[in-house]
C-alpha cells in the first residue's frame, strides 16, 4: 500500500486512539485523505470491522479505490452511501418491515409525481379542486405535497406534527395515500430507504444488535450534509456498542439545507451524544495561494496556505452580456490551451502546471445549468470537446425500444408495479399488453419480441438474451441507422452494467440488479472527454486544475429565491460559492454578465453577486 506524506496535524488524526472524533476542517484540507489513511491503518489489524459512509456514489468509489480494497486481506469493511448501506440491509430484512418481496426503488422524480397525482385522484374532493387549478399551480401543488412527504421521512416526524398552517390537513390524507400506493406497487422511494432501516433498528433489538456487532469503527465523510434521519440512523446503529465514530466535515460547505441537512447534527448532536472530541484542521493542500486568498476573503476565514502551496491565478471579469461572457471563457480556454506546457502565466514565478494543459484539466461551473447556454453554443461552434457531469442518478433510456424494455422488465420482476404497467399501456396505446392481437395493432409491434425475450429472462441467460436483442435490432428494417445505433448503445450500457453487477455479487438477482441501477451504484463510465461542465452541487468533493465560474450576477448566484427568503437559505448560497471557489487547484476565473436575457425575451441589467462586493 502506498504511503503519502501527511502533515503533522493530519498524521495526528490518522493515528488517534479509540474514541469518537469530529474533524472539522476547511475545504481542501485533506479530510477525505485523512479518513482514508486512518481506515487503511485500521484495516491492517484483522479485528477491525469498518463502516465508511459517504454522501455520493462518486465519493465512495474514490474511497474504495484509494483503499485498494481488492488488495486487502481484511475484508471487514463496507464502503458506501447511506442509501446503499440501507439497501443492503433491506435486502435481507424486508419481511420484518411487512414486505412480502424485496421492494423496488422508484428512483425517478417522475415516478413520485405520478404517485402523488394518483393519490390526489383517489379522493374525489381533491380531484375537483386540483382539476380546477392552472397547470403552473398544479405543478406547485404537487411539489408541496412531495416536499411534505419527504420532510416527514427526513425529520422522522409524525405527519401531524408537520402541519403548521390551518387548512393543510389534506396533506395528511395525501401522505397516507402516497404510502399506500407505493406499498401496493411493492415499491419504496429514496427517503424510505433510510426511514425503514431506522425503524427496523429502533423496533427490533435483535437486528440492531446484530448490525452494531458487525462494526467497531464508523466513519462519515461530509458530515455537514447529515440530516435528522441519517443522524438518528447512525445513533440507533451504534446503540451502546459502537464507540469509535469519526465524522469529518466542513460547516462552511453545508449546501443541502433544502434537503433537511444541517451542520448541527455533527457539531452539536454528535459531539454531545458521543462525547466526541473536536479537532480542527485549517490547512489547504488543494488550492493555489491565489485561490486560497480568494476563498478566505469570501468567507472571512484564515485558512493557512501551507508551506509548499502552489502558485496560481485568480481573476474576475465583468462581461457586457451573456454572449460576451461566453466569449471571454472560450477565448481564455484557447489562450490556456495554446500556452501548453507553461512555465509562466503573466508572472515569471508561476510554476509549471502539472503536465500539459489540456481540456480535461478545465471545468466550467455554475449555480444552475441555464448559465451554460451561450458557452455551450460557442464550444460547439469551435469544436471544443465538453461533457456535462451527472449526479447520483440511475440510467435513463431515450429510445422507445429501450423504454418498452425497461417498463416490461420492471413489471416482470415486480408484478405489483402498477405504475410502470400503466406507463407501458399508455406508451403502447393498448389495454392489455399480453394480448397478441392488440400488440400487433400497436405502433410498436416489436414489443412482441421484447415480451418474448423478457418472459424467459433469468440471471443465467441475461447477457445472452440481451445480445439476441442486439442481433434483432441489427437485422430489423423498422429502424433507421441512427435509431439502431442509439438502441445498440443503450443495450450495450445495460450489458456492461450487468457484467459489473454480476461480477461484484455472489448471488446476482434481477431485482438486486434493478435496485442497484436505481441507486446509481453501478454506472458505465461513459467516455467523458474534454471540458467538464457542472453545477456546483454536482462538483462537490471534487477538484479541477482550472475552474471557470460563470453567471455570478446577483439573482443567479445567489439565486433570487434565496435572496427573497434570506437567513439560512442565503448563507447556504454563500457556502455554495465557497465550494465552487475551492474546487480550483490552480487557476480560478470568475465572471458575470451585466445584462441577462430573461426567459420571456426582454433584457435585464444585472449587478455582480452580493458575495463579491469586496472583490
Ligand atoms: N498531506 C498532503 N500532501 C499533499 N497533498 C495532499 C495532502 N493532503 C491532501 N492532499 C491533496 O489535497 C487535495 C484535497 O484533499 P481532500 O480531497 O482529501 O480534501 P477535502 O478536505 O476532503 O476537500 P473538500 O472538502 O474541499 O472536498 C487532494 O488533491 C489531496 O490529494
TrEMBL record:
Domain spans labelled UvrD-like helicase C-terminal? 282-541
- Which enzyme class? isomerase
Q: Which GO terms describe its molecular function?
A: 3'-5' DNA helicase activity; ATP binding; ATP hydrolysis activity; DNA binding
Provide the E.C. number(s) assigned to this enzyme.
5.6.2.4
Q: Which residues does the record give as ATP binding sites?
A: 25-32
| InterPro entries (alphabetical) | DExx_box_DNA_helicase_dom_sf, DNA_helicase_UvrD-like_C, DNA_helicase_UvrD/REP, P-loop_NTPase, UvrD-like_ATP-bd
Q: Looking at the keywords, is ATP-binding present? A: yes
Which SUPFAM superfamilies does the record associate with it?
A: P-loop containing nucleoside triphosphate hydrolases (SSF52540)
Q: Name one GO biological process term.
A: recombinational repair
- The domain of life for this entry's organism is Bacteria
Provide the catalytic activity annotation: Couples ATP hydrolysis with the unwinding of duplex DNA by translocating in the 3'-5' direction; ATP + H2O = ADP + phosphate + H(+)
Q: What are the protein's UniProt keywords?
A: ATP-binding, DNA-binding, Helicase, Hydrolase, Isomerase, Nucleotide-binding
Record domain UvrD-like helicase ATP-binding: where: 4-288
Query: What is one Pfam family matched by this protein?
Result: UvrD-helicase
The record's section on PANTHER family has:
ATP-DEPENDENT DNA HELICASE SRS2 (PTHR11070:SF2), UVRD / RECB / PCRA DNA HELICASE FAMILY MEMBER (PTHR11070)
Homology family? Belongs to the helicase family. UvrD subfamily.
Name the UniProt record assigns to this protein: DNA 3'-5' helicase
Q: Which organism is it from?
A: Alkalitalea saponilacus
Q: Give the taxonomic lineage as stored in the record.
A: Bacteria, Pseudomonadati, Bacteroidota, Bacteroidia, Marinilabiliales
